[in-house]
Amino acid sequence: MTKRQLKRRFKRMQRRTTKQWKRLSPPQRTMYVAGAVVQVTLFAAAQIDITKRSREDIRGPKLLWRLICFVNFIGPILYFAFGRLTQEEPVTDETDVTPIVA
Fold it and tell me: Does pTM surpass 0.85?
């Protein structure tokens, strides 16, 4: 089999296995677009939140969380679930705590 024949065969196989946009039904297209919108929105929200928060309000380095957010869907969800410190759990340094004298 020649190189040209192999290329043609591979292209035919590729056409059969990959779903083309024009062959998707309208509900399938809607789901793809909705999923993409949700993914981009989560990513943008996480990046904006990382930018606005100080280092002390985020668990771990900001750069690490920025990179984790590039993982589809899971990255931003992990950041919102585990990366942010909430008001209930402030970071305290034992050396900075001064006793209150009444």
Answer: no
Residue by residue, what is the 3-state secondary structure of the chain? CCHHHHHHHHHHHHHHHCCCHHHCCHHHHHHHHHHHHHHHHHHHHHHHHHHHCCHHHECCCHHHHHHHCCCCCHHHHHHHHHHECCCCCCCCCHHHCCCCCC
Q: What is the pLDDT of residues 21-64, one digit of tens each?
A: 888 899 999 999 999 999 999 999 999 999 999 999 999 999 99
Give 30-39 contacts, CB < 8 A, sequence gap 24+.
Answer: 38/73, 39/72, 39/73
